[in-house]
Amino acid sequence: METNKQDSATIRQALEDYYFKGIYEGDIDVLGNIFNKGTLLFGDVKGQPYAKTLDQYLDGVAHRQSPKDSGKPFKGTILAIDVVNSIAVAKVHVKMYEFNYDEFLSFHKISGKWVIVNKMISDVAE
Known about the structure:
This protein is α+β, with helices and mostly antiparallel strands and 126 residues long. 33% of the residues lie in helices and 48% in strands. It has a single domain (2-123), classed as Nuclear Transport Factor 2, Chain: A (Roll). The model has no long low-confidence stretch (mean pLDDT 95).
């Protein structure tokens, strides 16, 4: 049980330091620290299907105005983290621009480091 608490704390810190910070600043180098290279992203945005590779996602982040540069509010909230051995799922909420995303981020501990291996999102009403 102690390992799960430590792993959960490590994932929480990585979400704050890399995931939320990278999205907010539009920094794909920071985001790259938390994603596994083969990560796939799926879900729906404004009712439309959403499917991207990690490279497509990072390219989009690199070529949009970041929430930081826009001066518009941004909020990333960790709702839950569930760890089982070397796998974990984090449920987070991201508010940026006119979007409210509920996200499920699948993690795997690879070579001692927790990385996102799958991202699922849905744009939800406030």
